[in-house]
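Homework help thread (please don't just give me the answer)

Our assignment gives two proteins as sequence + structure token strings and asks us to describe the second one. The first is just a warm-up. Here they are:
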Amino acid sequence: MGTPVVGVLALQGGVAEHLAALERSGARARPVRRAEELDGLHGIVLPGGESTTMSRLLDVFELHEPLREKLAGGLPAYGSCAGMIMLSGAVCDGGDGAAAPAVRPLGALDVSVRRNAFGRQVDSFETDLEFAGIDGQVHAVFIRAPWVDKIGDGVSVLAVVPEGPDVSERSEAAGRIVAVQQGAVLATAFHPELVAGDERVHRYFVQIVRAR
């Protein structure tokens, strides 16, 4: 493959940061707002943002079913934070773990994800973690982040929250799953697009796209 074309769902969230990171990672990046803009893509990124809003806008722009069909057909995808929630198979809310009916996930990953799992905006934190397939530690920015509660067969765990003083004060944070891969679908609970000068996660995804 020459230069892969990777779309970024551009309805809401950190679109510009992902577009720039993908370009620096060797892809030709373009925003996606309409169903016809899915055609010709070799991969797609679902950015961070607010999952309830993102889910609603996918319906408003008549993108939910076309995107779901593309993913079911094997389109490589990467989701960060809210993007991880949207790629999941099931979503529950933090706290009591009740189902989140306002979010209609796309079912591209056989995982169950808990929204706002680490707490509110004031509980946002940063830490360094080991990421399978990437040399050296990855600096991870967690903002009202989810974590993965359950994984199905065929899902690989790429990163968990480490023990350490820079982890959220919530005692259950350490050890939680925050990066997974299933085939050509990648997801992280954190925001690598916000770490200036480090495109390793995006380069990892572009490699997935090239391999596909």
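The one we have to describe:
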Amino acid sequence: MAGRQLASKWLKTKALLSDGRIAGYIPRTVHYSNSALHSMLGRFGNVVIKPIVGGGGYGVIKVFRDGRGYGFTYMAKTRMYRDFAGMTEALKKVRVKRGYLIQQGISLARIAGRPIDYRVKVVKNGEHWEFRSMVGRLARPGLFVTNLCKGGTMLTCREGLRRSLPRINSSAKRKEMRNLTLTCIQVMERHFPGIGELGFDYAVDRSGRIWILEVNTRPQ
């Protein structure tokens, strides 16, 4: 039984931010507005904007600022603009017609230039939660989204960590991911009684730091 579903990425992020053990794993996340985007780009240089409701990488856009000006990447196409106003005007036409969040951009570890992130799926069986899968998702060449429905390649978690970050202890990193998942489950159950399955999307950046990208109550 799937249990309760919760579509809003913002509500789930807010719940996790309320716990001090988890808050440090969450990239800075704010509601979308042009002024918030300008401020986040000034602080981080690159961000990801994503619909508050939606999955499968749908509507996800990478926005950045560099020496050439401002730009964004949607699917495999990157567009550049000399000024912020020109970029936001073009962005308006690409964004899907729903509310968006802005999330601090994370420099994902890569394999042969392709970014990789991780999906951890857990399911409630009676009183207990069980780990069903821990997999790496390697982006299709040319894309920054890793979703399998967008052509990403699935690897085991161990293989993904070993190939993308050969100098780190992949067993310790997997253990940290599992422990973080168990802590997040406690918080999610407290805020949203009745949930029966969860999919956690984790990034591991180039320095080996884990980040929680989002939590799904209807994981694919």
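TA reply:
I won't write it for you, but here's a hint about the kind of observation we're looking for: The helical segments are 9-17, 20-23, 34-44, 84-94, 157-164, 170-191.
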